[in-house]
Every structure is written in C-alpha cells, then in structure tokens.
Amino acid sequence: MSIKHLEEYRNPALSRPLIDRIHHISRTPIRIMEVCGTHTVSIFRSGIRGILSETITLLSGPGCPVCVTAQHEIDAFIALANLPDVIVATFGDLIRVPGTFGSLRERKAEGKDIRMVYSTMDALEIARNHPDKTVVFAGIGFETTAPTVAAAIQTAGNMGLSNFLVYSACKTVPPALNALVTDKSNRIDGFLLPGHVSVILGLQAYRPLVESAHIPCVVAGFEPSDILQAILMLVEQIESGEARLENAYPRAVTEAGNRKAMQMMAEVFDSGDATWRGMGVLPQSGLCIRPAYARFDAGAVLKPDVRHSKEPVGCGCGDVLKGIKTPPECPLYKTVCNPMKPVGPCMVSSEGTCAAWYRYHR
C-alpha cells in the first residue's frame, strides 16, 4: 500500500469534495444501511460517521456472517465437537461465539479437537492427514465463502475422502435485503451494498429488489473514498426521489458477477429456508447441500442434537443486525457484554457491529 493510499485510508478529509457535496445536497433525514461487516469496520475506523451531515444516519445491517448465524447452528457446531473421533474445523471468530451451553472455545479447553483454519482447503488437508477421524467444517458465510465450501466438497469427492463433512450454515444476501425492506419496525431509505458479495453476484442480483421495493441501492468498495462516493450517490437519489441500482465499485463488480463461482455453488447447493439471527426464517435464503453430495453433509450424516437451543437472555444482537437498535441501546452493552466476555456474536466477530462500536466509537 502506497503512502498516499494509506493516508487516504486513514484520513477521509482528503476526500473533501465528496464530503462537501454530501453536506450541500443533504437536507432531509436519511437512513442508510451498510450491508457488509467490512464496511461497518471501515466506516468506524476512518471516522466517516463523524463527518457526515447530521441528517444522515448510518445503520449497520446483517453483513457479519458470524453474527447472523442462528443460535441452533452454533449449538450444532458444539454438539458435533462433542462427538467421539470428530475434529471440528472453524474460522477463528466462530470459536468464541456463545451457544446455549458454552462455546467451541470452552469445548476446546475441555479437550475436544477443535481447530481454527483460514480456508476450507485447510480443513480438507486436516481430513487427508487424519483418516481415522471425521473432520467437520463449520460452513458459515455468504456468497463470498460459499463457492470455496462447494469447491472443498467437490475436491473431497474427487479425492475419495470419506471423512470430510460440512455443516452448511451458508446464507445468501438478497433474501435478507427483501426481508429488511418489508419489515415495518424499521425505516431504511437506501442500501450501501456489499462489495465482496457483489463481486460474486454481480449487479443483476439486486435489480428485482430495486424494482419491487423502489429503494436506492449502490454497491461500494472499502476505502473511505469508495464509501463516501457511494453515500453521495445514495443521497443524490434519495433527495431527488429516485431509486436506482448504481455501481460505485466498478473496478471489481460487474453486471454478471463471477459466473464460475455461481455455477460451482449451484452444482453443490440447493436454495432452502434458513434462520437468521434476529430475522427469523427467511425463505430460500440458505444453501443446503444437494442430495448428490449428501455423504458430505454433517447434518444428515451425524445428526447433531440441537433440540434445546435458546437465545442469550437480554441480548440485543438481533435488533442491532436489523438496524432497529444501536449497540449502546442494548442494556447488556459494556455492562455484562464486552469483547473479553461476549454475550452475543455481534461483540465477538471482528466485523460485528457491537465490537466495532466498542473499539472505535467515542
């Protein structure tokens, strides 16, 4: 990263023309939701909230894959770790998320074999090196992660690895956006669409939403100047009474997206109903392993017992994910819930809204 690029990242004041233009045209109260955890962190880290017009409210949405993972899915991962001769491979943030009866980190401390990995292929390698164990990958994430999970399942099939399984809790973003715009408990005037997900899906995935809900949507990159440009484009639409789909991240996002990645997902996964934390069951928002690959489906093969799942008492994470509450409006925030002892996943994940508020908000 060049010095100039680094300065732009740390100092959004270098994007002064964008800021001045936003201030000039913003007149009415506007509520914009960023639908990406990386956007949330970038917005806080760069101080964008503090330099926008007072008429603009930024809401953090369900863009953190760890945060939206349902409680019964967290409990399923823990139940799988409790089974004999099972190794659970998981991304780092997930290991600290509290389930109904503890966390993966606590089970690891008790001697269960739980390993943090950086990719699905790392989990595949563990399975190859431990043929006497069943390796279960905790499959969470959106369209950015799902193709790699699909690739790992296909690779396991090609390698003849019978001891590699995936518990799929992968979810897709467009159904969540549809649910948010129809939720009467909140008002969202425009969406700052996720960059990484949009690289895979392309602009085409959002056109039905814009047309049916008549809501402004702009895909954004991750530098402060990218985000400010996207906010400006949203404000211009909202102030003029228009609703369009625009792309402020053309260097990475195209109309069609990554067709190869989407084809890989389609070969391994079917769409199915899925439970999102705070949002309930959203039709056709989950990625279920197809019958042709059922031998790699940990849910079908090992059948973890999650009959007694319960949400953490008093946790406002669900309302935070919908933009109904900010973290300080949760009674547990900074009292009994903090990064060292989190109650909900929004305080755990590096992309979680509560964690971002705790670390950056003053």
Q: Would you write up a description of this structure?
A:
This protein has helices spanning 3-10, 16-25, 37-46, 48-51, 65-68, 71-81, 104-109, 120-129, 146-159, 173-182, 195-201, 207-213, 224-239, 259-268, 298-302, 317-321, 353-360; strands at 30-34, 56-60, 86-90, 114-116, 134-141, 164-170, 190-193, 217-219, 245-247, 269-276, 280-289. It is of the alpha/beta class and 362 residues long. The chain folds into three domains: 3-61 and 175-247, HypD, alpha/beta domain 1 (Rossmann fold), CATH 3.40.50.11750; 66-172 and 257-302, HypD, alpha/beta domain 2 (Rossmann fold), CATH 3.40.50; 317-360, no CATH class. Helix 2 (16-25) packs parallel to helix 13, helix 3 packs parallel to helix 17 (353-360) and helix 9 (146-159) crosses helix 14 (259-268). Mean pLDDT is 93; it is low at 1-10.
**Secondary-structure element order, N to C:** HHEHHEHHEHEHEHEHEHHEHEHEEHHH
Counted up, domains total: 3
CATH class of the largest domain: Alpha Beta
Q: Over the alpha carbons, how many angstroms does the gyration radius reach?
A: 21 Å
Tell me the name of the CATH homologous superfamily of the largest domain: HypD, alpha/beta domain 2
Q: What is the CA-CA span between the terminal residues? A: 28 Å
Percentage of helical residues?
A: 40-55%
**How can the largest sheet be summarized?**
5 strands, parallel
Count of individual helical segments: 17
Mean pLDDT: 93
SSE-based structural type? alpha/beta
Low-confidence stretches: 1-10
| Count of individual beta strands | 11
CATH topology of the largest domain: the name is Rossmann fold
- The share of residues in extended strands comes to 15-25%
CATH architecture of the largest domain: 3-Layer(aba) Sandwich
Give the spatial strand order of the biggest sheet.
2-1-7-8-9
User: What is the overall shape?
Assistant: globular
